[in-house]
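hey so u asked for the seq, here:
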Amino acid sequence: MRRTITGPALCAAAALLLTGCGSAEPKPAGDGGGQQPQPAASQGQGSASAPAKAGGGAQHEVTLEVGGTGRTAVMFSGVGSGFEQQNLPWSKTDTVELTAAEQKVGYLVNVVPGTITGPDGKLQQAPCTIKVDGKQVAQSDGVSTVKGCSYTIKQ
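ran it, structure tokens below
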């Protein structure tokens, strides 16, 4: 008798917990299924400015660049995000606005280029550069450093 009561009670408790874990906010129409929603500042290609945030965060113009010729895969985040084949040379510029918390702990931007054929005919990572407010803050030649480019913006 004890086992028959425990099983249904356990199922009822699990159903109650799962029901409480649902989101109170409805999904927007046309949601891509498994895609994570992006912040408004990073939506769209080539957006010139981020919408104003409450509290007036610090704004920075960020430029990601990948050099070379031909086509390669480029992964980037911080000024939108993406992972796609691009014609080289490639660049993306956007304005990011940091919240108070992001100004303290930092806001990560990065770009990781794929491979290109180097001058010696061997495959190597394409060179990359990150600029913040026109100043170069990160660079990789694709040979001595093969981790791409990454930089944490702080106020």
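The CA atoms of residues 54 and 81 lie 23 Å apart. Confidence is low (pLDDT under 50) at residues 1-5, 10-54.
lmk if thats what u needed
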